[in-house]
Amino acid sequence: MNSLIQIDNASLKFRIYRNPSPTLKEWAMEKIRPGTRHNAVSEFYALRNISLTFQGGDRVGIIGLNGAGKSTLLKMIVGIYPPHSGRAYVRGRVTPMIELGTGFDVELSGRENIYVNGAILGYSRREMAQREKDIIDFSELGDFINTPVKYYSSGMYGRLVFSIATMIDPEILLVDEIFSAGDAHFVSKGSARMLELFNNSQIVLFVSHTLDTVRKLCNKVVILNKGEVVLQGETEEMIQYYLGNIVTP
After folding, report:
1. pLDDT tens digit sequence for 147-174
2. 110 and 86 in one domain?
């Protein structure tokens, strides 16, 4: 299958609740003068009129200042936030490396969490059973794999999260920064594994603030600012534009 991501004039709005817990005085004023709190809820565009197409061979860096909409764009593509208007069409199996470990149940063992997170990523129990040994070996947890996750150190937790997320057969890979955990040995091993995933994926979208890494890994760059696409094109040209016009206008 030739993977494809096609976003056509897609916009996404979020609501802001300015005061979800009003004081007694504010509540009373609303009763006396209805409409007093009409500004308690407002909306803003997290993404506005986004039109992008990615296809096989694209290694795309998504760059922008904090709050530009980079992570939100990935979440819209994977379906966490459907667009309010326009459309986001995806052909191919999407593997999101976004907010890793969110689905972990700390009361369950590491081994049990392999299957829980596999299900979240869209893999069957049988598929995860085929990957179980490789995940355990890569995480270097040994017998601790049968221990409840709540007893793990942060390094152990991070190694398991990373090992599950990267023991996949990617078609479309969405990465929100590169996740690495543990000592220098595991960081080095994890970086090599990430490069392998990048090379094996048909499409990669990579959100990062580390521009040198974007230079090394990406053949295209999309610049976002305030929820809109500013420019897209060749990596070095886009990075120079970003530094000169967005970071230091």
Report:
1. 999 999 988 998 998 898 888 778 999 9
2. no
